[in-house]
From TrEMBL:
Domain Disease resistance protein winged helix: 394-461
Protein name, entry field: Uncharacterized protein
Pfam families assigned: LRR_8 (PF13855), LRR_RPS2 (PF23247), NB-ARC (PF00931), WHD_DRP (PF23559)
NB-ARC domain location: 146-309
Species the sequence originates in: Rubroshorea leprosula
């Protein structure tokens, strides 16, 4: 689960938060925490499914697939929620926003899970009479093998089970299925513990992992024996089943501290291994996993290559499948590499090729799978793509690699054509990634934004690739001995370990080492001065997320270094002169602790990527940029109070594509935006003046502008670029209305708008002069602390409201706009058909959400029929602290909002009638599954259209205590 969480964090760091960026902020994250807690409770209530299931499953009936999947999802999401809630109390400002977003994501996922949790059709189905027909889900699972393992797990004869078979035959998949079954049935064991054992075996890490999976923690800084005793004691407290996946080496249970399972204690151990002697050594009863039958193999191949697309002569492709020797992994990978091939000659050639290699290897050896996989690798036919593939093996086994991170790494390693623009490089990287995925050398991970490598494929990559030392995420506390750093090493990955220090005189001799990854060793605070002295060939050095306080001097001489990554090195204060790093193309110091710009940067004439977004950095001396004519990416902290860059300074950077900074003032901004230099940027975040408290400092930029304390009232006072996507207006005193800003007419891409603390704004748009095309395009509108705002859209004095105003608006958020009485006049409603979320908080005079222009009485007095209003996409309506709110829509009207899922009404004492109905009137919206009311008494006084509504909605009701 920990890895899962990391991946989510990674994904969030990278995937630009699409919508909602404002609301997922600093302030709202508390609210999300509350929502999470609420939903967790709802979820737990639904978990009686598990008990029901246990009662219904018997020898003839098995759980439905969807039920099994659902329960697994529940387990996952629960762990996730716990994880987020645990982190909440003491996170920093920036992580809050991040956590908020993560929470938001979980909430969405939760909704989906809750939605799928209604098994009114029953939980079980009849078991098929005979063995299952060969389906893809069961592809690697031989039914008899699973039966055997299940038998051993339920019986008393066998305590230690060894699932043995060659690599790629499907051992892990079988055990994953059994693991999931065990989780569900919870009949015999209190704890089901899964640990992937990496090789070489690391006792310390194995101990930690086992403890972690039991929700326990072993003491650190103890010797292994003591920890073994401690672990043994922990394990003695529960009836466990321990699954150790992929064991390569013999070891003694006692050395690790694994309590030996016996008939008396009822515990069991299952290991999977490619080595029969390991199973024997541990005294396991062996269950052999054999390759697929001929027919299964053919089916699997057809499925993978897509039977509709297969245009090869039958004789040839069947022969090819035969060469795969029933190894599912080989079949999948080879099918992947032949996808889309239509030329008969090519097929025949491929077959010959494959046959040729296999003849040359001994049957039954480890090479059996190796040669078959290598066949696919060779078919990539492009040495660049092959190198990209090989570099994936630098990550830990079973690691889910975020796609964008991987592409960035390829660029940093110089594996992608270096001359083009950054954008071209990113596109190229994504293309290569697709190619690798299509050929099944990389698999999809659990997240859409990530990929992973099968461990057998990874073994191959490590064998084929350059000489490497990969000990990623293995719990190392010490750096490998100097002896392990051999002269022929080209790549070293020690990422995400617990390495805390490096011996003072260590100076590994690795003259051809090109890549060194030390990132994520957060306890590493010092690197000896001479450490890099004999690494003259180093090109990529990643020290991100380490605790280093200074960079060693030997770094100054790495003349071939192209990439130096120091992101999140928050303790980093001292950096020696970098002037000699002439080859450097990328220097990334995002969130590093430095307060002055490292000396010598101005000499780095090849620099293409410079991230100096360091919160403590006070200034950027002006002459620095002068020599950096190759820069494509330049980012500094746009929220700094002292660090500003003028448009003039960057104009010399002819290749700039991404630019993030605070500009000198509004005039400088206007001049710059008008310049041709600006037009070439593909991403920017430009700030003038102060930013709002929860301004979104996304890692992944799009096109954002924030104007703080600027005079943007009059005509032409501000020049906005046509392609701006996000606009923040903060404390601009003279700003009266969007209709006053001439340049808004042209901003066809503007999606997100945020206005905060502007004293004079009276209406967002004035329909008499609706100069703003933005009212047709904007998707999110957030209005915060606008004391004089009285209407969102002023329709007074116009004949007919144009029908499509706000027709793209999805999210509307308003807070502390105390003069607004009516949120939307009815005339606007026809446009609001895409609105999904309305939040209104702390508006002292708000009386109605939707209402007639003019006095309510004039319209209702003679109305005889009910008027119907529709907001077909509304999913969330949240009203909080609106002391004068009387109506959601006019007195006799009803509002049809069948998509509504969440309704929150807090501290709205005058609200009586809830006119919300679903498509089946007068029932409440069918999707409504979360209602939050405060104070509790309010619920009693609320009237729904449907007299029965309160009963129907009871299960969705929640009264917060906070
Ligand atoms: C579950 O589904 C059934 C039929 O689809 C429906 O009648 C019932 O109201 C649903 N229950 C819940 C709690 O959604
Ligand atoms: C460097 O490390 C950081 C932090 O762990 C990571 O996000 C980044 O992807 C790494 N980059 C490369 C090229 O290894
Ligand atoms: C550094 O690069 C230069 C030129 O690219 C090359 O001649 C030299 O051998 C490299 N040094 C090492 C130690 O690899
Ligand atoms: C630009 O680089 C040259 C040498 O390449 C150096 O002499 C000069 O001082 C640099 N300019 C600045 C402004 O640092």
């Amino acid at each position: 689960m920990a890895e899962l969480a990391t991946v989510i964090l990674e994904v969030i760091k990278w995937v630009a938060p699409p919508a909602r960026s404002y609301v997922d902020n600093h302030r709202n994250f508390k609210k999300y925490a509350k929502v999470l807690r609420k939903k967790l409770r709802i979820l737990e209530a639904k978990e009686d499914v598990k008990t029901r299931l246990q009662g219904e499953v018997c020898s003839e009936k098995q759980a439905k697939n969807e039920v099994v999947v659902w329960l697994q999802d529940v387990e996952k999401i629960k762990a996730e929620i716990q994880d987020v809630l645990k982190e909440l109390p003491d996170v920093s400002y920036f992580s809050r926003a991040r956590l908020g977003k993560r929470a938001r994501k979980i909430i969405v996922e939760l909704d989906d899970i809750l939605g799928r949790g209604n098994f009114s059709e029953g939980l079980v189905v009849n078991k098929p009479a005979t063995a299952l027909p060969f389906g893809v889900e069961n592809l690697e699972g031989e039914v008899s093998v699973k039966e055997k393992i299940r038998g051993y797990l339920t019986g008393n004869e066998v305590q230690m089970i060894g699932v043995w078979g060659i690599g790629g035959v499907g051992k892990t998949t079988i055990m994953k299925q059994i693991h999931d079954e065990l989780l569900l049935m919870k009949s015999r064991f209190d704890k089901v513990i899964w640990v992937t054992v990496s090789h070489p075996l690391n006792v310390g890490r194995l101990q930690d992992e086992i403890a972690k999976r039991m929700n326990e923690r072993l003491r650190e800084n103890e010797d292994e024996q003591r920890r073994a005793l401690e672990l043994k004691e922990m394990m003695g407290r529960v009836k466990y089943v321990l699954i150790l996946d992929d064991v390569w080496q013999r070891f003694r249970l006692e050395d690790v501290g694994i309590l030996r399972p016996t008939v008396e204690n009822g515990c069991k151990i299952v290991i999977t291994s490619r080595k029969v002697d390991v199973c024997n050594f541990l005294g396991c009863e062996i269950v052999k996993v054999s390759p697929l039958s001929k027919e299964e193999s053919l089916n699997l191949f057809l499925h993978e290559v897509g039977s509709d697309n297969l245009q090869a002569p039958e004789g040839i492709w069947k022969a090819m499948v035969e060469e795969c020797a029933g190894l599912p992994l080989a079949i999948v990978v080879i099918a992947g590499s032949m996808k889309g091939v239509i030329d008969v000659h090519e097929w025949r050639h491929a077959l010959n090729e494959l046959r040729g290699r296999i003849r040359a290897t001994a049957e039954g050896s480890e090479d059996e799978i190796f040669e078959r996989l290598k066949f696919s690798y060779d078919r990539l036919q492009d040495s660049n793509i092959q190198s990209c593939f090989l570099s994936c093996s630098l990550y830990a086994e079973d690691y889910e690699i975020v796609r964008d991170v991987l592409v960035e790494q390829w660029i940093d390693e110089g594996l992608i054509e270096q001359s083009g623009s950054r954008r071209a490089k990113l596109d190229k990287g994504q293309t290569i990634l697709n190619r690798l995925e299509n050929s099944c050398l990389l698999e999809n991970a659990r997240f859409a934004g990530a990929v992973k490598m099968h461990d057998v494929v990874r073994d191959m990559a490590l064998r084929l690739g350059p000489q490497s030392m990969v000990k990623a995420r293995m719990g190392l506390r010490e750096i490998p001995d100097e002896d392990d750093w051999t002269e022929n090493l080209e790549k070293v990955s020690l990422m995400e370990n617990e390495i805390s220090d490096i011996p003072p005189n260590m100076c590994p001799n690795c003259p051809i080492l090109t890549t060194l990854m030390l990132q994520g060793n957060s306890k590493l605070t010092q690197i000896p001065d001479c450490f890099f002295a004999n690494m003259q060939g180093l090109k990529l050095l990643n020290l991100s997320e380490t605790g280093i306080e200074s960079l060693p001097h030997s770094i100054c001489n790495l003349e071939n270094l192209t990439t130096l990554l120091l992101c999140y090195c928050e303790q980093l204060k001292h950096v020696p002169c970098l002037a000699k790093l002439k080859a450097l193309k990328k220097l990334d110091m995002f969130k590093a602790g430095i307060d002055v710009v490292p000396e010598g940067i101005d000499m780095l004439v090849n620099l293409q990527y410079l991230d100096l977004l360091c919160p403590e950095l006070v200034e950027l001396p002006t002459q620095i940029l002068g020599n950096l004519s190759q820069l494509q990416h330049l980012t500094v902290d746009p929220c700094s109070t002292t660090l500003k860059i003028t448009g003039e300074e960057v104009r010399g950077l002819k290749k700039l594509e991404t630019f993030q900074a605070q500009l000198y003032d509004l005039q400088d901004f206007n001049n710059y935006v008008k310049s041709n230099h600006f037009k070439r940027l593909s991403n920017y975040q430009l700030v003038v003046g102060q930013v709002a408290e929860y301004f979104n400092l996304a890692g992944h930029l799009s096109k954002e502008i924030s104007l703080g304390e600027c005079e943007i009232g009059g005509e032409d006072s501000v020049v906005l670029p046509d392609d701006v996507k996000e606009l923040w207006i903060y404390r601009c005193r003279k700003f009266r209305s969007f209709s006053d800003i001439y340049f808004l007419q042209k901003t066809t891409e503007l999606r997100d708008c945020f206005v905060s603390e502007c004293e004079e704004i009276g209406c967002v748009v004035d329909m008499v002069t609706p100069s703003s095309s933005f009212i047709y395009n904007v998707e999110q509108l957030c209005l915060d602390k606008l004391p004089n705002l009285s209407v969102v859209a002023n329709v007074e004095g116009i004949e007919a409201t144009p029908p499509h105003i706000f027709s793209n608006l999805r999210l509307f958020w308003m807070r502390e706009c105390s003069r607004v009485k009516r949120l939307f006049p009815i005339e606007l409603l026809q446009g609001l058909q895409n609105l999904e979320e309305i939040t209104v908080e702390d508006c002292q005079q708000m009386e109605e959400i939707i209402g007639w222009e003019g006095e309510e009485e004039n319209h209702t007095a003679n109305a005889t029929t009910t008027t119907t209003f529709t907001l077909p996409k509304l999913t969330e309506l949240s009203l909080e602290n609106l002391p004068e709110l009387k109506r959601i829509c006019p007195t006799r009207g009803v509002m049809v909002c069948d998509s509504l899922q969440e309704l929150e009404i807090k501290k709205c004492p005058k609200l009586k009638r809830i006119p919300l109905v679903g498509n089946v009137r007068p029932s409440p919206p069918a999707a409504l599954k979360m209602i939050t009311i405060k104070p509790k008494e309010l619920w009693e006084s609320l009237e729904w259209e449907d007299p029965n509504a309160k009963n129907v909605l009871q299960p969705s009701l929640h009264f917060p205590t906070y």
